[in-house]
Amino acid sequence: MEVPVAASARVWLDAARPATLPAALSPVLVGTAIADAFVPWRALAALIVALAFQVAVNFANDYQDATRGVDTAERTGPRRAVASGTVSAAAMRNAAALAVVIACAAGLALAATVSWWLIAVGAFCALAAWAYSGGPRPYASAGLGEAFVFVCFGLVATVGSAFVHDAAVPPAAWPAAVAMGLLASAILVANNLRDLPTDEAAGKRTLAVRLGDRPTRWLYVALLTGAFVCLPFVAWLAGEWQPLIALVVGLQAVLPSQAVLTGGQSGRGAAGSELVPILMATARLQLLVALLVTLGFMLAA
């Protein structure tokens, strides 16, 4: 079996898509902050689970899109490792499997000390990570990628991160999970909007392809707006006002929203490579919201 060491560390770092990693880090921060108790090693294990699954999804997507012919020379985003020939398909497949093993190992440690039900959750996430772009009917090509991100990197990651500390779910974790899921989904929407022409040409029916260009742009704005609408519910259910300090970064959602709707050279919204900085700005926005919500709960403690 070929081991995933055929390329430089830089190539593997790029393949892990660091711009998307805030989608894994943010819900763990928020869920941990909302929990009444705090067990440091459990917080670290939850973070490993989330980050490893995110990397596994990215590696699997790199492998699957290359072998299915979705990633081509016409693609406008960052180059993909397998499609560009810098990493073999076998090495990328094995790297994705290794990332899943790491996530499952950390999850098993949590399950052994918190609840064995976490094994079922982990198995679901592992299957979902592969089926995202793999298998006979990858659901990313069925327009369900955003739903996967919302559930796994919003609901599961946020609620699960609180649960591993308290062995229960604080009420405030639910609207916080929705907020994290909406922001994480917005990252994917920006990504799929960028790739819409090439995905459509390759027959990959993402949600952006199914909705079309303009509705996808409004969906992006709606996701950002919905995330900030959730924050007052977090504060209300927690009985603390401090998490509301995250609302101050709401203005930072205006610039990427405006760029998606009316920016770019065409004036009808950023397109192609113009969406790359918007994707990164969306990821930074999610992380900033998570950090401020976390700070709010720390100040309330």
UniProtKB/TrEMBL annotation:
Its EC number is 2.5.1.74. The keyword Transcription regulation does not apply. InterPro entries: MenA, UbiA_prenyltransferase, UbiA_sf, UBIAD1. Pathway: Quinol/quinone metabolism; menaquinone biosynthesis; menaquinol from 1,4-dihydroxy-2-naphthoate: step 1/2. GO terms for biological process: menaquinone biosynthetic process; vitamin K biosynthetic process. It is a multi-pass membrane protein. The keyword Membrane applies. One of its GO terms (molecular function) is 1,4-dihydroxy-2-naphthoate polyprenyltransferase activity. It is found in: Cell membrane; Membrane. Keywords: Cell membrane, Membrane, Menaquinone biosynthesis, Transferase, Transmembrane, Transmembrane helix. Gene3D superfamilies: UbiA prenyltransferase. It holds the Pfam family UbiA. One of its GO terms (cellular component) is plasma membrane. Coiled coil: none annotated. It catalyses: an all-trans-polyprenyl diphosphate + 1,4-dihydroxy-2-naphthoate + H(+) = a 2-demethylmenaquinol + CO2 + diphosphate. Its main location: membrane. The chain crosses the membrane at residues 39-60, 81-108, 114-132, 144-165, 171-190, 218-238, 275-300. Belongs to the MenA family. Type 1 subfamily. Conversion of 1,4-dihydroxy-2-naphthoate (DHNA) to demethylmenaquinone (DMK). This is 1,4-dihydroxy-2-naphthoate octaprenyltransferase. It comes from Egibacter rhizosphaerae.
